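Journal club prep, notes for RB
We'll compare a predicted complex against what the paper describes. Inputs for the iron/sulfur cluster case:
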Amino acid sequence: MRGMMGKVLVVDLSTGTMVEQVVPVEAYRDYLGGVGLAARLLTDMIPAGADPMGPDNVLAFMSGLLTGTGSMMTGRWMVCCKSPLTGGWGDANCGGTLSPEIKRCGWDGILFRGISAGPVAFVADGNGPRLVDASAQWGLDAIESEDSFKAAWDGAKKPVVATIGPAAEKLSLISGISNDGGRYAARSGVGAVMGSKRLKAVVLSGNKPIPCADKARVQEISKAFTRKIGKINLPGFMTGAFMPLMGKMLGMKTVVPVDGILASAILKKWGTIYNNTAGIVNGDSPVRNWGGSVKDFNYKKYSKLNPDRIVARETKKYHCYSCVIGCGGICDASGTGAKGSHMHKPEYETCCAFGALVLSDDLDAIFLCNDICNRSGLDTISAGSTVAFALECYERGILTKDDTGGLELRWGDGKAIVALLTMMAERRGIGDILADGVALAAKRLGKGSDAIAVHAGGQEPGMHDGRMDPMMAVAFSADPTPGRHTISSAVYYNVSHLWEFVSWAPPVTRPYFKAKEFVASDEEALKSVAGACVKQLLDATGGCLFALTTGLQHWRLFEWLNAATGETRTPDEWMDAGRRIQTARAAFGAREKAADSGKAQARDYPLANPRIYGEPPLDRGPLAGNTVPLQAMVERYRREFGWDEKSGAPLPAMTGNQ
Ligand code: SF4
């Protein structure tokens, strides 16, 4: 299949050996690239019951099938492994510029097994791949580490660097992997796995051509998409002050189908922070450790997070590789206490996790938390969620001043939040107990704290409330990487226009009552399945979720796939690959759950903390009274996939293990 390099590199960090492996044609045909190919390969390479922090775990840096072929917004890279956070399949996804560089070095993925005796970096360039001593970089924060490798580079073409920070070196299970100065593959505890291998960085500078079956056709589709996105802009009068109103409209009891391309105009102007205030008003943003609402974080507070206030600090826009939207930005960080003069613009997830979730309207503190996380390597979603958990523990007397070393933990106190986050990043004092996320912190603290430890299957959920969007609650609970906000939701589904291409995807062409989304019906389950399958296609190809949300009638994924690969598959057939990948991820998780049973490393967590699905429901705010029939919805979702309804394990007929 064209589009792929045809091989992966397997690096054994224990022995220093490196072997290029030719990938069987069937693996590409059935699992494509990215997460799909990793799921296929790692299922065989990682022995059942492997210690996720041990030498048998494999950490795979994967490029996407479409990356570098000339298609647009398909430049994301994926990192996959057994997750030490959830005990199941782990993957995380990131923008930036690493994905094409993996291919330019000659591989579709670079897979690391074993554990190095000392800190090393993997380097690949025109002189081939090698491991180099990284003792000098060990201990540097992620930004310093990247700068250090780039400064020491003597080749003509500067490398792309993916690196970990000190939190990952200290094996924090909520740490990720940085590239491009603070773009993160943050979820599933992938940073901790890299730290456990003593692999400080992956440094790539390649120049190999990336194959594409029909370059002219790919470019023709790309040009049409670029033209469309270029034309869509918001009128000048549309300022951040309008966002609460937009939030109200999106939170109405009737859902009206819209063209997703409008979202690209919003993303071009603000990036994801457009939702800072809109999400508070309609209930999308969780408040006060998922126990509050806009009544606790009212206009006076949320208006301080107006996206215009953040964009005012933006000095330039940031685009990932092959992106025409450019939702990112580089911001002036002066006056915030941040280490450097500039930083990546905090994303909505970060603004909410260190804003509404902890009742803080202190924008400087949010910038500083963003900087601490980006430098140390902590995942902002999990870190903010853990701070919120600690604040509630303190309020309830589960934690006291004696536990925190004298630090008073009060809701909304930006200074205390920064201080606690710093302790987590350094694993100092109470920070050591909290540094692995809320599930393990609750286990260590006891005293009934698990009731307020908001996680799904061990991972803290993204900042989108399942009580507003039940499909999101299902994704949080039933995805093989639980807690992920990028898998599926009614919002993503409705703007994707998937049904125009995929015969079995339920159409959303007319207004409907939102109450319908709260019913455990086959139709809702099918939408969740379709959302999960197309997301796996994105993570196999390198596609960006925000490209999908412009709508597949604009971002013509299926046409690009045929043009780049030379295949002639229908959208249904491409979606079959998405279904196969999702099942492979689930099968890996089920296998590991069974193999880990009884071991200290076992992560036997419930589907989701009841706050995620409204049991009991909130008694005030826009989501008051909302309860998601989660168990019933998850069971229908699993049935649609052909998995066991109760356990989520794919049935033998689905995996071929008959
Ligand atoms: S929309 Fe944003 S996240 Fe997606 S590829 Fe573009 S810059 Fe990256």
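Talking point for the session: The pocket of iron/sulfur cluster is lined by residues 73, 95, 267, 319-320, 323, 325-328, 544, 546 (CB under 6 Å).
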